[in-house]
Structures are given as C-alpha cells and as structure tokens.
C-alpha cells in the first residue's frame, strides 16, 4: 500500500501537470453586447481579456500575453477569436465577462473524392440572359485558393467593380495585385491556424495561389468565364464555362498543403461577410458535430442574417443513412449526381464486332490489328510473375472476387509485355475512374462473352482499340442518378429538417485546375498535367448551386437566402432524363429510386428556379425560434445566435421549409404517427393567382392539406396552409416518401415539396 502510494501520486501529478501545461488552439465565442464601453473595438476587448487571464495565471512567466498567440479575431459572421491556450488558461477565460463558449480547433478537409473521378456537365442556359449571366453578383469561395492565370478567370467584357465591394487583393508569394481583375475581385489567405497548430511548419506557398487545384476547380465551376476547346487529354472536349459566367469571384484560401484548420476557415468566412460577398460557396467538411459546435453552421448563421446565401457540400460519406455532415437549417446543403456523359473507347474485333467500353487512357495510343489473346489462368492478371509470360498482344483480364482490384490489375499489366488489355468487370466505380495509366477498355461480363469466344476459338484473332471518345445521351444509364458517395440525410444535428436540400452535378466535372499538378499518369512513373481536370464529389456539386443562386440573386436582388433556396427546391426535378424517378447509384441494381434523404427535392433546374410562383420564406427570427426549440443549453444557443438578448419566447421546430419531414420511433412494435405542419407561402408570380393542391402520399400514410385551394389577389400576398401526416405501419426502419404540389390554375407554375416519413436514427 504505502510503497505504491508515491508512484500513484507521481503519475497523477505528471498527468495533471501535463494536462494544464499542454496548449491547444481554441475558437472562442463571445457576447459582443457584454463589451465594456471603454474598449474602442472588440479586438481591444479580447486582447485585454486574454491579458487578464494571463496575469492571474501563475504558470505564465512574464505575465504578458504574447500577441502572436491570438490567431484570428472574428467580428462579422460571429463574434470571438481563436487563440492558443493551456487548459488552466481556458478555465480562467470561461470566468471572463462575455464568454459564451469554446471549442477545439479541428482539421478540415475538402470534399473531393480522389478515388472516384467522375464527370458532369452544366446545361443551365435560359436563366443566363435574364440574369445577364449573374452580372455583378459576388461569389465568395472559401477553399484552397486560385490559379489566377487560368483562362477561366479572364475578365474580357466585364464591367467595372461595383463601388460597394470592400475586399482586397492581398499580395503574397507568387501573387501580386495584378493577379486580380474584374473577375477575381478579391483574394486573401488565412494560415495563422496552421502555424499555431504546427509551429515548426514552413508554408510552401504563402499566398492565395492554389497549389492543390481544388479551389481553382470549384471557383471556375461557379463563375468561370467561357474558354473554348478545352478537354481532359481529349476527353470531354468543348467549351468550359462556369454556371454564372458574369459573376465575380472573391477567393479566401484556407486549405493548405501543410494542413487545414477550422480557425482559418472561420477567418475566411468572416472576412468574406465583411467584404460584402452575396453568395458563399463552401466545399469543405468538418467533423460531424452539433450545430452549436460546427464552425460553418455558426458562421453561416451570421452570413444568413446579412442576406448572404451559403451553399455547402453535403460530404462524400455516402451511401449510408445519416451521413450528411453539414445539417445546417439556414444553409443550402448540396448532394451530388451524375450526368448523361461518359468516356469511351471502341473495341473492334477482327470478326467485325464492335463494343464500346469505358476508358480514360490519357493519350491517343495506337492499338491497331494486334493479336488478341485469351488464357483463363492468365486472365486473373493478379501478379507480375503470372504476367511475365504474357504475349505481346491485347490480353483479356477478368475481375472477380478472388483476382485483384482493377487498379492492381492495370498496374501489373502495365509492367508486362502485353500491348493493351480488355478488362472485364461490372464494378460501377471503375466505370467512372479517371485513373487509367495503361491502354485498355473496360467492358461488362455480358459484353465479354463473344469476345472470349472469338479469342479462344481463333488462333489468328485480332482486335483494335480507339481512345478519347465522349458519349452524350442516355447510354449507358439514365441521368442524373444520385452519386454513390454523396452523403445522405437525415442530419444528425436535427433530423426534422430535410438535408441535403437539393442535388446538382458532381460527377466527373471538367473545370480549371492548377496546371502544375499531376492529374493523370501513364505507366507507373509518368505524371501528366492539364489546365482542365475532371473531378467528382459534392465539392463539385456545391459550386453549381452557388452559381445558380448568383443567377437568381441577379434577377431578384431583394430575395432572402431562404427565398432563393425555396425557389431552387420547389422547382427541382425528381425525374431523370427517361422521365422516371431519379435512381440512387448505390442501389442501382435493386432498381431502387432515390428518396429525398438522398437528393433533397431533386435535381436543380435553374431555368424554372427563376420563376417559382410561390416561395416559402424564413426570417432570421424564425431560425432563432427553431434553435430555441432544440433543447440546447443557454450557452449552446448563444454560440449560434451570438447574443444574450435573443428572443426565445416562441420556440418551434416547425420551420417554414419547402419540405416536410415526419420522424418516427422505429423501436416501437407498431409505428403510428400524426404530425401537423404549418406553412406560409408568398406569391412571387406576376399578379392574382389560384393554386390547387395535388398530393402524392407516402406509403402507409394519409396526408391532408387545408385549405386545398389558395387564392392570391396580388403579388407578394401571403397565404397559410396546414398539412397533416397520419402514418401507421408494422415495418421497421423504412423510409417512405411522397410530395405535395401547388398547381396554378390557368398558369404555368407548379410548386413541389417533398414529404418524407423516416426514422430519426439509423437501425442497429
Ligand atoms: C505570409 O505572408 C504574410 C503577408 O505577406 C506575412 O505577414 C507572413 O509573415 C508570411 N508568413 C510566412 C510563414 O511566411
Ligand atoms: C505582377 O507579376 C507579374 C508576373 O510576374 C508582372 O508581369 C507584373 O508586372 C506584376 N505586377 C505588379 C504590380 O508588380
Ligand atoms: C476551337 O476549335 C475550332 C475547331 O477546331 C476552331 O475553329 C476554333 O478557332 C478554335 N478556337 C480557339 C479559341 O482556339
Ligand atoms: C496460360 O497461361 C499460363 C501462364 O502464362 C501458362 O502457364 C499456360 O500454359 C497457358 N495455357 C495455355 C493453354 O496456353
Ligand atoms: C490469382 O488468382 C487466382 C484465381 O484466379 C488464384 O488462384 C491465385 O492464388 C491468385 N494469385 C495471387 C498472387 O493472388
Ligand atoms: C468454340 O467454338 C465451338 C464451335 O463453334 C463452340 O462450341 C465452343 O463453345 C467455342 N468455345 C468457346 C470457349 O466459346
Ligand atoms: C425537447 O425536449 C422536450 C421535452 O423533453 C421534448 O418533448 C422535445 O421533443 C425535445 N425537442 C427536440 C427537438 O429534441
Ligand atoms: C419576442 O417575439 C415575440 C413574437 O415571436 C414578440 O411578441 C415579443 O414582443 C418579442 N419580445 C421581445 C423582447 O422582443
């Protein structure tokens, strides 16, 4: 006993000493209304607060707060600062007047899936003339910076920068003020958080210049100028253009080769709000956390209050239930879908048969009338030893569970004597991969039957392969489908509001890139770069919505962010190009249709969004009413609302949203549910209008709407209705969905809202 005591004591002592001395970066929320009048600015107040906690803290040697440890102060999207503190100092800070909350600065990652490189295309055209192509709307892009020399950011024909713009073109490494123009009207960079978290790191590109390519890609999707004759090594040739080609870009670099931190992302968003952006495009992910701890949610609340629409990628954690990362009720959360374009190579057999397969080999290789060789053993293509005996011919590789991954097969084959390969596989992920370092085509097992028959029965069999083909149209699958990796709802932060909100193209999108980055390869050691790159993910879907929001904003500058979101959601298309319900790529073989938890209201339809007929608007106070109903502590609530004087007298989760989510408890043996919603719609058509409701009820439900007819005498008039869902089932964990549509009588408007009945939590 006694012998052990000093040891226990010692280890306890070491532990606490370590904990109190260890410093971390924290993001601190402060209540601005508590600032004493004596301080001229919040910055002075925060510095003084930090000074006082240092001086009461005996571990501090000099009693002075080193100013370098105050990382950023935030004064626009929310109030507070980021700082490096020890645990003791944090405890002392919590006692300071005005303190609301603190949380750890965490890492942040961009939302591009590197393993799946998919393509898509934006076809928005009718809304362009009406909006003058998004003229003068400013889109703030918070990402990895920009490659300013890209043709996509030329400013020919653009007018002078509006006087209201307050941003700057920050000078830095390889980036001077001439890099901005009438397209890129702002450029700033934020890396104090990277430096604070990694004190020994050297920033390799200390400026807004994009060394990665992600930020350049995202910015050019949202607002790139038209550039003719571009392609990805011959694939997807044509004119690259952003969704809002006359909108302006303001670039906030917060992602670094050396790391990426929430404190820097917050500083970027905060500055964008101060600079006067109209739209914020955020293709970043944070940890899955509650709204009051989620920096994008908090900053987006402040942006929303200032009339800025915030568009955020849903994340690439799909296809499982409840994987959406950002469940922010006051932002637009964007899911990713496919488009009707794919890349191909033709396989022509010596007997005249031609099969179109998938290829992305990044060159026009000559594979003409070469011998075609099939041998069952060899076709495993699963080791260098096996392939050492491969003939100088086109060989056939069959992918199965026992053999190897496509990426391994192609790497083994590229080290062999074979001249080209035919890969037989039905894995859908391969049929979208841009990583194709060896000449070959991918075909499915059904298509492969005549090829194997021909090769095994003819010693003189030959074949040719042509590359660099781009196919538009219905083949091979309807489009859009929900991309497999797109994160799915409901949001864990609050499942009662539909997230994601909407879907946009996010698969194999061609857009500008960092021309120095390696984006394709030949063999194992030749890297290739390109001014334009194909990328996939919700990161690519998000800037489509940012661009479309800019177009709508150009036409309707008075609309709130909620009104613009409502316009996009109620006009979104739930059908694909075969006029059947949009399918989910993850469930394609079950022929299962996507639910609103996968794609929100459906695929965005920019031309219809311009003229939605009715909108479901939301005021900032109504969002406060929602937050007040979420059973947060006072401090948690204040973290989002940022003020102690907020009005929580009317809490309500029934937000005026253009979607209806009824949550049930799946653990009960028999589910019965009755949920009533109240909604107010505003007539934004040209004048008097009458709308009649059309209901498509979810399975096992009864839906009643009252009244069933809404009569508007004039523009901007509001009408209320209620919707009640009664649901009864013995099935557990099923998601049932339907919709209500307000159909204008003797008019063209249809205003559709999805209805979902879902468990709030995943099974198991
Ligand atoms: C980066 O550039 C900024 C502004 O030019 C400068 O203040 C800062 O010291 C630089 N940081 C590093 C790590 O070089
Ligand atoms: C900025 O850099 C470019 C290219 O290095 C140069 O041509 C230009 O004169 C510079 N502009 C200024 C204002 O220094
Ligand atoms: C693009 O290609 C077309 C057809 O080859 C050619 O006529 C046109 O001049 C090219 N445009 C540019 C800007 O190079
Ligand atoms: C098939 O290939 C394997 C490995 O290269 C070889 O050992 C075998 O002899 C071949 N079979 C025939 C029938 O050619
Ligand atoms: C290659 O695949 C065959 C089955 O087709 C299997 O028997 C063999 O063990 C595999 N070899 C390697 C190295 O994985
Ligand atoms: C080769 O041809 C014969 C006769 O046409 C056919 O019966 C046989 O199935 C073929 N072999 C293969 C491997 O398809
Ligand atoms: C808040 O708590 C009340 C009382 O426990 C409960 O009825 C309500 O469902 C909770 N609200 C939310 C959004 O969780
Ligand atoms: C709070 O809001 C309600 C309406 O939601 C209003 O009646 C009340 O006056 C407000 N209270 C304050 C203090 O603003």
Give an account of the 3D structure.
One of its GO terms (molecular function) is serine-type endopeptidase activity. The active site is at residues 143, 214, 539. One of its GO terms (biological process) is proteolysis. Residues 1-21 form the signal peptide. Keywords: Glycoprotein, Hydrolase, Protease, Secreted, Serine protease, Signal. The protein has 764 residues and is an alpha/beta fold. It has 17 helices and 40 strands. The strands form eleven sheets. A seven-stranded parallel sheet has the order 8-11-7-14-16-17-26, sandwiched between helices. Strands 19-18-24-20-21-22-23 form a seven-stranded mixed sheet, with helices on both faces. The protein has a five-stranded mixed sheet with strand order 33-40-39-35-37, with no helix packed on it. Strand 9 and strand 10 (235-240) form a beta hairpin. The chain is globular, with a radius of gyration of 28 Å. The model is unreliable at 1-20, 56-68 and 109-125 (pLDDT under 50). It binds 2-acetamido-2-deoxy-beta-D-glucopyranose (8 copies).
